[in-house]
Amino acid sequence: MRSWISLLLPVLAAAGAIQQCKPSQARTRKEWGVLSTQEKTEYIDAVWCLRGLPSVLPNGEYPGVRDRMDDFVATHINYTLYIHSDGLLLPWHRHFIYLYEKALQDECNYKGTLPYWNWTLSTDNSTLNPVFDGSSTSFSGNGLPIDKTNATALCPKNIPCPTPGTGGGCLYNGPFINWTSHLGPFSISQVQPYGDLPPNTWAYNPRCLTRDFTPDWLSSLNTPSKISSMLSAPDIKSFLSLMSPSTLGYVGAHEGGHAAIGANMLDTFASVQDPVFFLHHGMVDRVWTLWQQGDPESRLLALNGTGIVHDPPTAELVTLDTMMEFGVLDCPVRVGDVMDVLEGEYCYKYD
Question: Is the model more confident about 298 or about 18?
C-alpha cells in the first residue's frame, strides 16, 4: 500500500490558502429525487465523462484500470482492508466521495454537487425510487433475474436471513445499461480476517454491471426508525453499532444499503464499480454529518475504532492525527482535517 505514495498527484494547496467556509456559503448536497431532470442528466453525463477520461495509474502495472473512473475503483480496492468495519470507515469515505465530487467538477465541468440516495424512501420496492426506476434520469434498475438454486444466502447474526434477491444479472434498462466493470470480482472471504489483497487484484476482467435487489435489507436496517436511532445515539461507538458494527458477522445501515442493491455492490473491494456507490455513501456521510451537528461540542471530533477491518485487538486506535492514504487521488490526509464539512477544503451541507 505504501508504494502508492510515489504515484501521488501534485499538491495544489501551495497555490493559495484555503478560504474560510461560511455556513451561508456552503453548497448543498441534495437527495436524487428532488433534483430536476436537467440536474440529473448533467450528473449522469459527468459520470460518463469520467469513464471516458484516461487513468492516472500506469496500465502496465494495473492492466484492469482502463479509465479515470477506475482510478477510484483501484484506490478503494487497495485500501479496503483498512477502511471498513473500523474507525476509518466514516472519515476515509467522506474524503473519498469528496474527491470524486471534485473530479466530476474539475475534470468534467459538472456544476452541481454530489447527490445522495435516501435509503428510507421506497424501502419495500427499490424500483419505485427515482434512483432505481430505470428511467433515463435514474441509475438504471435491477439486474435480470438469474437462477439462484445453488446460491449461498448471506445471513448476518443481528437480523433475520433476507429472502433471495429478485435480480442478479446484467442491468437491462436506464443510462448505465452499457456500463462495464473491469476489475474483480472479489470476495471478502478470500482475505478474512486481516489478510492481504486478493490474488490477481489488478487483472482486466470486463463484464456487465450487475444488481440483485433485496429489499429485506432496507426494511431491516435502513428504515426511518433506524436513522432516528442513529441520530440520537449518545456517542460515536453507539452510532457505529447501527451504521457499521466492527464485529465480524454483524451489519448496519451502511452494509444494508450495499446488500439491498446487491451483486456488484456486495463486492466489498470493488463496489465502487457501480456508480450508485457514491450516492449510497453520500447518505452515509449525510447521516454522520447530521449526527455530528446534533451536538458539535461532543460529537464533531468523536472517533472510535482502529484502522484495520473488524478492529483487531492489537491494532492501534484511530486518532485525529492518524494519516489516511488515497493513492493517486490525493496526498495523505489527517483524520482531524476531515471531521467538519464546514472546515478546511470542505464547504458543503446536506438538505
Answer: 298
The CA-based angle 154-77-52, given to 5 degrees, is 115
Rg, C-alpha atoms of the chain: 19
How confident is the model at residue 11, as a pLDDT? 41
Give residue 128's pLDDT band: very low, low, confident or very high (50, 70, 90): confident
Residue 58: Cβ-neighbour burial (10 angstroms; 0-12, 13-18, 19+): exposed
In degrees, to the nearest 5, what angle opens at C-alpha 117 toward C-alphas 139 and 25?
Answer: 115
Model confidence at 9, pLDDT cuts 50, 70, 90, reads very low
CA nearest to 304, candidates 254, 252, 239: 239
Q: Using CA atoms, how far apart are residues 341 and 147, in angstroms rounded to an integer?
A: 44
The total of other beta-carbon atoms located within 10 Å of residue 25's CB is 11
10 Å Cβ neighbour count for 8?
A: 16
| Cell output for 291 | 449526527
Q: What percent of the chain has pLDDT over 70?
A: 92
Look at residue 204 and give its three-state secondary structure. coil
3-state secondary structure of 76: helix
Whether the per-residue pLDDT at 61 is higher than 70: the answer is: yes
Distance between CA atoms of 265 and 273, rounded to whole angstroms? 8
Grid cell of 272 as nine digits: 465502487
Cα(205)–Cα(203) distance, rounded to whole angstroms? 6
Secondary structure class of 80 (helix, strand, coil):
helix
φ, ψ of residue 223 to 5 degrees: the values are -80, 165
CA angle, residues 138, 163, 242, in degrees to nearest 5: 75
Q: What domains lie within the chain, and their CATH numbers?
A: 40-350 (1.10.1280.10)
Stretch 20-32: mean pLDDT, rounded?
A: 93
Report pLDDT for 190: 61
Distance of CA 261 to the CA centre of its chain: 13
